[in-house]
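Hi V.,

Quick status before I head out on leave. The structure for the redesign project is tokenized and pasted below; the design run finished overnight.
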């Protein structure tokens, strides 16, 4: 495990050498970092890490994005997620898998009251419509690993929430 300073990723290029697969799940919120901080973490860090990984020999990059990602969206969150999807694809990996989960169901150490309420509601909805509006983070993690273990012909594969659930069952 290598600890890197994301503000100085170029100084940590050696940490990105010699890996066949790269997984990216890092993100923040606009509330924590402001709009500029959100863009820096959720787009700029991702693209820089992807470039370093590719230069270091990475062949398959697996990116956790978001349902509704769209570079033309009026909403900052969805626009940045769409932009980063496009930018990571442009890096030129042999394979790029993009996962677009809906609301992530997880336990957090920090307090986010509105998110907690949404998770409680969506957790109940998931009992009736298990793949419609949410996905447990454990399912996303299993899907990320499974997509690497399966042979793939596509250069870019996008997995929406239902496909994440299906792949994450294994």
């Amino acid at each position: 495990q290598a600890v890197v300073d994301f503000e100085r990723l170029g100084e940590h290029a050696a940490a990105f050498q010699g890996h066949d697969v790269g997984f990216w799940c890092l993100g923040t919120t606009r509330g924590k970092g402001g709009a500029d901080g959100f863009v820096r973490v959720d787009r700029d860090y991702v693209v820089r890490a992807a470039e370093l990984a590719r230069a270091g020999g990475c062949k398959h990059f697996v990116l956790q994005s978001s349902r509704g990602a769209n570079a033309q969206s009026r909403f900052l969150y969805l626009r940045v997620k769409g932009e980063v999807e496009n930018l990571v694809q442009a890096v030129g990996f042999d394979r790029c898998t993009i996962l677009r989960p809906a609301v992530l169901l997880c336990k957090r150490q920090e307090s986010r009251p509105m998110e907690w309420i949404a998770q409680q509601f969506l957790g109940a909805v998931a009992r009736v419509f298990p793949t419609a509006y949410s996905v447990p983070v454990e399912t996303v993690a299993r899907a990320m690993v499974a997509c690497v273990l399966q042979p793939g012909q596509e250069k870019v594969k996008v997995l929406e929430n239902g496909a994440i659930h299906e792949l994450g069952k294994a």
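Above is the designed sequence. DSSP finds five helices and six strands in the chain.

G. will cover questions while I'm gone.

Best,
W.
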